[in-house]
Amino acid sequence: MQQNLIERQGYSERIERMFGKGMVVALTGQRRVGKSCVMKRIYEKYSQDSHNNVIYIDMEKTAFDKRQPS
Questions:
Q1: Which of 41, 52, 56, 61 has a 20 to 30 Å separation from 18 between CA atoms?
Q2: pLDDT bracket for residue 1 (50, 70, 90)
Q3: Rama region for 34: left / alpha / beta (φ>0; ψ in -120 to 50; rest)
Q4: Taking the chain, what is the end-to-end CA distance rounded to the nearest angstrom?
Q5: How far apart are CA 43 and CA 55, in angstroms?
Q6: Tens-digit pLDDT profile for residues 13-64
């Protein structure tokens, strides 16, 4: 199934302006409004450069589910 993603350029630009300032960025909002997609696009953009220290954690993965045994 192919997904059509809406580019959220304004949100991405606002987040990117905070980079390098020692700030933590947290996106909050209702479910299924595109928070993860915005962060995934930013990750894809910045992870291409080996000088950037970028991590993306998909909290939907069961490996991060605290209810799972260790």
A1: 61
A2: low
A3: left
A4: 33
A5: 7
A6: 988 898 888 888 888 889 888 888 888 888 888 889 888 888 888 777 777 7
To the nearest 10°, report the CA torsion of 37, 39, 40, 44: 140
Place of tokens 């595109």: 34
Owner of token pair 């045994």: 69
Q: In 10 A of CB 35, how many CB atoms?
A: 16
Is residue 12 a contact partner of residue 41, using CB atoms and an 8 Å limit? yes
| DSSP assignment string, 1-64 | ----PPP-HHHHHHHHTTTTTT-------STTSSHHHHHHHHHHHHTTSTTS------TTSGGG
